[in-house]
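Bit of a strange request maybe. I'm writing a small parser for structure token strings and I need a real example to test against, not something I typed by hand. Could someone generate the tokens for this chain?
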Amino acid sequence: MTTNKQTISSGWVRAAVVIAVLAVPAFVAVHTTARAEMLQTQVLQAQALPAAHFVAPTIIPVAAPGGAPAATPAVAISETKHAALPPSAQPLPPSLDDCTAPAQYSRFDRPLVRTMRRLGSGEPLTIVAIGSSSTAGSGASSRDASYPNRLADELRQRFPGHDITVLNRGINGEETNNMMARFAADVIAAHPQLVLWQVGTNSVLRDRPLEKHAVELREGIDELKATGADVVLIDLQFAPAVIAKSETPGMTEQIALAAKDENVDLFRRFAAMRDWSEVQHLAFDKFISPDRLHMNDWGYACMARLLGSAIAEAASRPIASAAARPAR
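Reply from user aminoacidic:
Good idea to test on real output. This should exercise your parser:
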């Protein structure tokens, strides 16, 4: 009896082993087929999706400071450059319904003879605006909102059909002698008929001696006049950071005296802006940026409106052919 039980048990074991051996290939085959079908489905789904594009950032090597270890080179990732906005998308000028100033601040003492002749002949008119940050456009929302850019728009409206170019040659932080060093390359080389020279603010902010500045200013005016171009000086801005300096009244008087003695015109920016504040009671936030020094979009646009009016009037006094119409 015992022998029979052992024989039966041994038979069941052998049968189980045989079944297990036969089942493994079948299981593997089924699993493999399912895996293959799943992979095929994923491939088909991926093909149905739009291809993804990866744009690798541009890697620009950055030189390590002198004496620094060169174990790991430093890198910088360049910023993406966006395409220029079409003209219709450029920022619009602010409303200037309340942009006014007394007539004496928006009218020049002398006619702009060279500018007048250029407009009268129908030839292209080139204007160079040289100065520091308030010419470059610091405080504005974009370079398009700087006063030279707004001035170009003003003059094209006042003299339709004329080819008028206003070149912005402002550089932040410069003083009178720095600008004079650039006259040859940034002013004279452009062969302008009119030069607008904004000057004086940074010298006051840095407490420079007025006597030295007076000499530099007159030398600069003589150099510009020698080119045959009309010359207009632009004095300081009426802003909290400027009026806080003790030398500001002396600088504005110095620029006005130099313009008179040298027989060139003066745009009285300081007086016009003071009128905005003290007579018209406009808050500084209306025309000055949060840094309390530079003008904002409205300030630059109003300055350009007043300056454009002064240029148009001074360039149209002697002859009717250069007469201008009011800006729209």
